[in-house]
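Team,

Forwarding the record for the chain on the shared tracking sheet. I've put the sequence and predicted structure together so nobody has to dig through attachments.
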Amino acid sequence: MPSSASDDLTRTCALFEQWRATRKGRSKIPDELWQAAVALHGRYSASQLCRELHLSAGALRSRLPKTPPGTTPAPSAFVALPTNTFAWPTPALPTAPVEIRLVWERADGTRLHLLLPVSQWAQAEALCVAFLHS
């Protein structure tokens, strides 16, 4: 880690320690100190800042920008398929018991995990279609 980056964290840590030593009662952290901590987020992880500056992770997270400055979200590699074009193959039923393991995830992040005997393929198909349309 470059010494200038380390110096920034050290200086900010010293500011927090000085404020804690001189504060009255249980006063809230001043905005200037929060701004200093948030400014370091590009160079340090939130967990490292919380550990070094003795901050609550939730309190720090609530003050961080949704995306770090200077970054753009990566384009999604997800390709949505229309559900009406699925041609569900009917698997040949083996003689030994075999299980179907499916994990479906919708765009909203909801997941459906299925672990069924292959003999219940029709039920699995119905569940998946219902899940995708709900």
